[in-house]
Amino acid sequence: MQIGELEYLKPARVDEAIELLAATNGRGLPLAGGMSLLPDLHLGTKRPNVIVSLSKVAGLREVSHDGPYLRIGAMITHRMLASDGSVARCAPSLGDAAGGLGDVQVRNRGTIGGSLANAHPGADAATVLASIGAEVVLRGPEGDRRVAASEFVIGTRSTLAHAAELVTAVLVPHHPGARMAYLRYSRIQGNYSTVNAAALLTDDGGRVAIGGATHRPVVVEIPLPLRRAGDKDALDALAAATRAACVGATDDHMASSEYRQALAGVLARRVALSALTREKTAREAPWRR
What we know:
By secondary structure, the chain is an alpha+beta fold. It contains eleven helices and 15 strands.
């Protein structure tokens, strides 16, 4: 279909979509839910000649079990994430983040793959996936490869994806007996987070991921064992380590660098406390019961 000077294509298979993108020589862009790309087109910040829609591509809207992982297709919407039972049992923080994201339209149309590929610093999914050690599955002309979610975003709206590569799925590992939580702060309801935080607590320690403070998610290992809400030394150490990891935080019209750095420390403490009060995930992967 030709729309003015913009060609709109709707392939039915992943490989077909990749072939179409590769044939554009960098002039084509994939379209998932459209929550990021359509505003870019209206503002003129992106000017592709070809749009390759993923709406009819088979196999990208499934949540399935893949060995020790929960495999989440790239076209799974935030609403679907928030309501999926397997996600709730394996990665409750991911469902929590998806359920509180944006507004109803964004949750209904926006996708996890699109959010990752857009790589906005304040996006929710990238932070949660970094905290739980997830992997991003990419497919391009050279085949499939996997990248750690904590390394996938390399800067504002920049990722490790190569030309004509698509995010096809996210692999979420099961953490037996872990506790997880997610918190976000945004000055304006429905906006991207000013700063967000996700925690994973295990018997051996855990980690906190911070989004929005810098141009990519920051992962902080919990420096001292955290067993209960009264572990002041552990919480103080976590807050200090988080502030140190966010030195040089983003300074813009929404918040100063100093504010973001301080807020990161506050949210790290709060999300860890929130995780302590959450129910543990199953000791055995839910799909192996």
